[in-house]
Design a protein that fits this description.
3 domains, two-stranded antiparallel ribbon, alpha+beta, 7% strand, 63% helix
Length: 547
C-alpha cells in the first residue's frame, strides 16, 4: 500500500503524529488526578509565589520531587495560563513522543528501519506509557530523558564523538532532576547490565559509561544539595520519610510485577510470546539485539521486584525495553506468518488481532448499550466514529484471514488511534457519575467578593486545592490548641466535621454551614469514592464581635 510506504519513509514524523492523535483530543477534558494536582500546584506556586527552587505545596515545603518537570510546566502555564490543563499536560505528550522516537532510534542501532518503526509504534501505543501521563506525569519525563541518554551512550560506544558523551551526560542530569535516581535504577542500570552481558566491555564501555554517569548524577544532584544546605531540617525529614517508604509503604510480594506484560495493553499477547526466549531466539533477525532487549526487560523487572514498595505505575519504564522485545515477535509474524506450518504457532497472532478487530466491529455497539443515555447528546459524532471503527476493524479481520500481517499491524495501530481520537473524548465528557458533584472552583471568587478570607481546619485533597485556584492557609496549632484567625468573620473548610467539635471553635464563633464541596466522580459506596474529596464550608462569625 502506498500509505504504508509513506509511513515507513517518515518514521519519526509518524510516531510523533500518532502520539498526538492518541492524547491530544482528551487532553484538556480529563479530571486532574492526585499526582497531577500536586505537581500542578507546585508549578502554580512557582509562578504566583516565586518558589522556583524551594518548591512548595499549599505554601509548605515539597522536596519529594526534583523541579525540572515542574519548571517546564510552569513555563507553559505562564504562556498559556496556569489553569489551562491542556497546555500543562502538553509537555508530557512531547515526552511520550520522545519515548517513541528514541525507541525507534535505539532500535535502529541494531535492526532495520521497518522493524525499528514497529518498536517505536508499540512503545507509544502501550497502555501505561499513555496512562502514566495522567496518573503521575513526572515519571514520563525522567524515563524519556534517560532513554535519550541511552541512545547517546550507544552512539558513544560506536564512535569517538565527544558530543555523544556530552549529550548522554546532559540527559542523565535531566533525568535525575526529574525524579531523582528512579530511572537510573529502573531503566539505565538494567540496560547497562544487559549490554555488558551481550556485547562485553568493548569500545571502552566502562570509561564511556562511567564519565557521563558520574558527571550527570553530580549535575542532577545540584538541586538536592542546594535544598539540603538552605533548608536542612525539612529536607532531612522529607528524605527520611521517602526512604522509609521503600520498605514500609505499599509493600507487595516479590512476584507482584510478574504480570507486567499486561501493562502493554494492546500488545499483551505478543508481549508475552516475545518473552518466551527459547521459542523466539532462533526466529529473530538479530539474536544479539533480541537477547539485549530480553535481558533489559527481565533485569528491569527483577530490580523493581526487589524493592518492597510496589505500585503498578512503577512498571512504566519496563514497557520501553518490552516494546523493543515485542517488536521482534511482531516482525517475525510479518515475515513468516504465511509460511508457518504448525497451527499452534499461528494461535497467538490470530487471537491477539482477532480481539482487536472484533473490538472495532462490536465495541461501538457495546458502548452504546452501556452508555446510551450519555451518548444521546453526541449521537452524530458517535455514529460517525462507530462506522469508522467498524470499517477499520473489518479491515483487520480481512487482512488476518489473508495472513497479511503487515497490514494487520498497521490497521491495528490505526484502530487504536481512531478509538482514542474519536470515541475517548466522548466518553470523557460523562466521566462524572456523581449526582452530588459540587466543585470548589468558584469559592475563591465568591469569598473575594464577600471580602472573606478562607482557611483550612484540617486536610484538603490536592485535587480540591488545585480546583480552588490558590493557597489556603491552614490554621496551625500551638500546644494542642488552634490559633484561630484574628478576623471577626472568615470562611472555614473542613474535611472531617468531628474536628469542628474537637477544636472548640464554637465557643468563640457562630458557625453557619454554607456548602458541601464534593469532587468525587462516583457515588458513596463505590470503590472510587474518596472521603478526602469532600470538604464542608462554613462561615464563622466571632461572638459578641463589634461591626
Amino acid at each position: 500500500m502506498r500509505i504504508i510506504k509513506i509511513i515507513e519513509n517518515y518514521p519519526k514524523t509518524t510516531i510523533v503524529c500518532l502520539a498526538f492523535a492518541l492524547m491530544l483530543p482528551s487532553l484538556g477534558n480529563l479530571l486532574v488526578s492526585i499526582m497531577e494536582a500536586r505537581n500542578f500546584i507546585t508549578a502554580r506556586e512557582m509562578l504566583n509565589e516565586g518558589n522556583w527552587l524551594l518548591t512548595t505545596l499549599n505554601g509548605s515545603p515539597r522536596y519529594e520531587k526534583p523541579p525540572l518537570p515542574t519548571f517546564i510546566t510552569a513555563v507553559f502555564g505562564s504562556v498559556f495560563g496556569i489553569q489551562n490543563i491542556f497546555w500543562l499536560r502538553f509537555p508530557a505528550v512531547i515526552m511520550v513522543s520522545l519515548i517513541g522516537v528514541y525507541t525507534y532510534l535505539v532500535s535502529l542501532k541494531f535492526i532495520n528501519k521497518q522493524h525499528s518503526l514497529i518498536n517505536g509504534l508499540i512503545a507509544v501505543t502501550s497502555f501505561y506509557v499513555l496512562a502514566i501521563c495522567i496518573e503521575a506525569p513526572w515519571d514520563i519525563y525522567t524515563h524519556a530523558f534517560m532513554l535519550i541518554a541511552i541512545f547517546h551512550l550507544l552512539s558513544a560506544y560506536e564512535f569517538k564523538q565527544t558530543k555523544n558523551l556530552l549529550f548522554a551526560t546532559l540527559f542523565i542530569a535531566f533525568s535525575v532532576l526529574s525524579k531523582g535516581p528512579i530511572s537510573l535504577y529502573a531503566l539505565l542500570l538494567p540496560f547497562l547490565l544487559a549490554y555488558a552481558i551481550v556485547f562485553g566491555l568493548r569500545n571502552k564501555f566502562v570509561l564511556k559509561t562511567t564519565i557521563p554517569l558520574l558527571i550527570g548524577i553530580l549535575l542532577g544532584g545540584i538541586w538536592f544539595m542546594y535544598v539540603r544546605m538552605v533548608d536542612p531540617e525539612v529536607f532531612i525529614k522529607i528524605a527520611t520519610k521517602e526512604t522509609s517508604n521503600w520498605s514500609s509503604y505499599e509493600v507487595k510480594p516479590f512476584y507482584y510485577y510478574w504480570s507486567f506484560f499486561i501493562q502493554s495493553g494492546l500488545w499483551t499477547i505478543p508481549a508475552f510470546v516475545s518473552l518466551l526466549f527459547p521459542y523466539l531466539r532462533n526466529r529473530v533477525i538479530n539474536k544479539n539485539a533480541y537477547k539485549l532487549s530480553f535481558l533489559w526487560t527481565i533485569f528491569a523487572v527483577i530490580l523493581l521486584s526487589v524493592i518492597p514498595e510496589k505500585k503498578s505505575r512503577y512498571l512504566m519504564p519496563v514497557l520501553i525495553p518490552l516494546a523493543f522485545n515485542t517488536g521482534f515477535y511482531i516482525e517475525y509474524l510479518i515475515r513468516q506468518f504465511k509460511e508457518l506450518k504448525h497451527k499452534a504457532e499461528t494461535i497467538p497472532g490470530y487471537l491477539n488481532f482477532s480481539i482487536i478487530g472484533l473490538g472495532g466491529v462490536i465495541g461501538p455497539a457495546a458502548g452504546y448499550f452501556l452508555y446510551h443515555e450519555n451518548i444521546k447528546s453526541y449521537l452524530g459524532l458517535y455514529v460517525f466514529a462507530s462506522l469508522l471503527l467498524l470499517i477499520i476493524g473489518s479491515a483487520i479481520l480481512v487482512n488476518l484471514v489473508r495472513k497479511n500481517m503487515l497490514h494487520v499491524f498497521y490497521t491495528s495501530i490505526l484502530l487504536f488511534a481512531s478509538l482514542m481520537f474519536s470515541i475517548a473524548p466522548i466518553m470523557v465528557q460523562f466521566q462524572n457519575n456523581n449526582e452530588v458533584w459540587a466543585p470548589i472552583s468558584n469559592l475563591k471568587d465568591e469569598s473575594k467578593e464577600q471580602n472573606i478570607n478562607v482557611y483550612l481546619l484540617d486536610e484538603i485533597s490536592p485535587e480540591m486545592l488545585w480546583d480552588y485556584g490558590t493557597t489556603i492557609p491552614l490554621i496551625d496549632k500551638t500546644g494542642g490548641k488552634y490559633n484561630f484567625p484574628s478576623e471577626n468573620k472568615f470562611g472555614l473548610l473542613v474535611n472531617d466535621k468531628e474536628n469542628i467539635e474537637k477544636s472548640g471553635i464554637d465557643k468563640f464563633y457562630t458557625l453557619e454551614e454554607k456548602e458541601t464541596f464534593n469532587r468525587n466522580t462516583a457515588t458513596q459506596g463505590s470503590r472510587r469514592h474518596k472521603v478526602r474529596n469532600i470538604n464542608y464550608y462554613y462561615i464563622l462569625t466571632k461572638k459578641n464581635a463589634k461591626d
